[in-house]
Amino acid sequence: MTTTAETTVLDHLQGLAPQTFEDLMAHSGLSAAQVLLAVDRLSRTGTVVLSKSGLDYFVTLRGNT
Fold first, then answer.
1. What residues have CB less than 8 Å from 15, skipping those under 6 apart?
2. N or C: less crowded end of the chain, CB within 10 Å?
3. Which domains does the chain have, with CATH numbers?
4. What CA–CA distance (Å, rounded) separates 52 from 1?
């Protein structure tokens, strides 16, 4: 089951370079908690990949890396 927040995150990531949590919040209109929960669920199913660079975490669709 995909939530509205998960769908919004997935739609935002389509065809884009890896995005930070801040990018996702700013461009999706979702709160920090909504983005964090959606990315957590999507990463556990393998739909998105988290990577760390310095102090930032980046989110990308699996296959768009």
1. 64
2. N
3. 4-57 (1.10.10.10)
4. 27
**Looking at the DSSP assignment, which residues form a beta bridge with residue 52?**
57
The reported pTM is 0.87
Give the position of tokens 């556990």: 44
List, as one string, the DSSP characters of 49-63: EEEEETTEEEEEETT
Distance separating alpha carbons of residues 25 and 63, to the nearest angstrom = 22
CA–CA dist 30, 52 (Å, integer): 22
pLDDT > 60? residue 62: yes
31-54 as b/e, with b when 16 or more CB fall inside 10 Å? Answer: eeebbebbbebbeeeebbbeeeee
Residue recorded with tokens 């949590």: 21
